[in-house]
Design a protein that fits this description.
single chain; alpha+beta; 8-stranded mixed beta sheet; globular
């Protein structure tokens, strides 16, 4: 039988974190993206319920400062009415699609934030998984509703 083996560095790496400080550390690591591109599917209200607005505002300012572009799809059912958005590549998820968690895809990583009563963060590093998730994101993007608003975090 032929041997089906890959280089050991092709194996997916999975990390699991718990708590708000771990969340903040992972989010800060996203700023180190080599591709300078972030894709996100987000339940923005859930995020805002977990993290203070000053942190979110500072993070988005840093994204802008570093020249990182992003495409974001927000669950329309979970938009925080106090969270005014001013992001150039922002769309609302297709009707009936509600995110209870948030996913950020960048480089070869997929980050999933489980925004339940405790904040859990899962990071999967795999070029193949990230590629698949980027393709899935692209299909959802095509079916998402355009918005002319841009992102700014108000206090």
């Amino acid at each position: 039988l032929p041997t089906f083996s890959k280089k050991s560095d092709d194996k997916p790496r999975v990390k699991f974190f718990e708590g708000i400080e771990a969340f903040k550390n992972v989010v800060q690591e996203i700023l180190e993206t080599k591709e300078k591109k972030i894709y996100s599917l987000a339940s923005i209200r859930s995020v805002m319920d977990m993290v203070d607005r000053a942190f979110v505002r500072q993070w988005f300012e840093e994204v802008e400062k570093r020249g990182i572009s992003s495409q974001s799809i927000w669950s329309a059912q979970n938009i925080d009415p106090n969270f005014q958005h001013s992001r150039r590549d922002l769309r609302l998820a297709p009707e009936g699609m509600d995110f209870s968690n948030s996913i950020i895809i960048y480089d070869t990583k997929v980050v999933i934030f489980f925004e339940d009563h405790k904040l859990f963060t899962l990071v999967v590093e795999s070029q193949y998984f990230a590629k698949t998730m980027k393709e899935m994101f692209g299909q959802i993007w095509k079916n998402s509703r355009k918005t002319s608003n841009t992102l700014s975090v108000s206090q």
